[in-house]
Amino acid sequence: MQAVLRLLGQEFTLECAPHDQRRVEDLAAALDARLAGFGGDADGVRRLALTALSLLDETQVASAALARAHGEIERLSDMLVEARLEAAAPMLDDERGRVGALRNLQGAA
Hints:
Elements: E1 2-7, E2 10-15, H1 21-34, H2 42-88, H3 95-108
Antiparallel strand pairs: 1-2
Helix pairs in contact: 1-2
C-alpha cells in the first residue's frame, strides 16, 4: 500500500503496510510541523525529511515496545507476590490442619 505524505510543500509516496498507513501519515504531519521553518537544498531537505521520518517511526515503535515490557514486568511482579503470599499462608484444609497450625503457633510463641 502507498501512503502519500506531504512534507515542506512536497508530496512523497512511500510504500507501507496497510495497517501502518495512518501512523506514517500522522508521523509525516508531525514532522512537517517541526520542519516548517527549515529551508535549503531540495534534495537535502528530502533526505532530511525521510531520515527524520524513519527516526520518528523507530522511536514510536521502541516506545510501544517499552510500554509493553513495563506491563509485562508489572504482571509478573504481581504473580510473584501472589505466589509468595500463597506459600506463606498456613494450610487450613481440614480440622486437623487447623489444630496443627494452632499448635505450631503456640510452639513458636
